[in-house]
Design goal:
With 321 residues, the chain is mainly alpha-helical. It has 13 helices and seven strands. 40% of the residues are buried.
Amino acid sequence: MPSIPDSLKQHRVRSADPAGVIGGTVRYAPLKSLWFSGMAGAALIGGIATFSWTAFALFLAATAFVLLFGHSLGSHRKLIHNSFQCPKWLEYTLVYCGVQVGLAGPLGLLRQHELRDYAQRMPDCHDYLRHGRSFWRDGWWQIHCDLALDTPPAIHLEPAIENNRFYRFLERTWMLQQLPPALALYAIGGWSFVVWGVCARITAGIFGHWLIGYFAHNHGPMHSEVYGAAVQGHNIRFVSLLTMGECWHNNHHAYPGSACLGLYAGEWDPGWWTLLVLRRTGLAWDLRLPHQLQHRPELRKLDTLQHSPCIAPPLMGTIST
């Protein structure tokens, strides 16, 4: 039986059986599928019928805003990894923006992420969790289906998160949270603004999240390797601005608790830049960096590149050649 890496002993996901993330069945998820298909259909049909350059500019701005402040900062770097600290009102605002991406509620998204992260760091895991099938099969699975593991591991969220009344409210109503911006946009610009500012934005968020996730686990350069892990992260160049820095996924697999993802020269990270601005204004502090994280003996360096000057040298081994 494969052993559990020491770095996973304090993980939110716990299981006495490492094989618990291997066996399972991928099943069609009607609500999940209908949510995306409905938004995509409305975006395609309504987008053609109501197109204007103003509405398209709104789509670009709204998508960029929720991806930066919601998905990257609120959902990922704050709620999931707690890689920086900020006032509670700002945390709630960022997480609410994360709900606007349209992927899931905050607690559901957190559980999905933790299960996938745990599974990928094990010696083996189900193809659904590793993006291990063909491009089109993986797209169908991730956007329209769910995975039912035969013996799912337990996911233990901190009481401060799991019992948080605001997060529980968003978890129950995350789909309905699209109504406030939809009403505001209708009042400002009519149905064109609703279609492009809500439906097209959600479609791009869901589809883009899968698309980047697929390539980030299958193709692209690597600075580091997590030895013994079922899945390695890959960096995807040329989309750093589109993903707000989330494309540096090999860096993230190496240092999941780092607030900075673009760790090497030339790796643009708009999420990190925004955190630096927030820190300068006193709205963010304790931004964690790789050298402040727990030593991981399974982490191996694959090249001789050095971190950018603002990042202290990490603790890691070196693969012998």
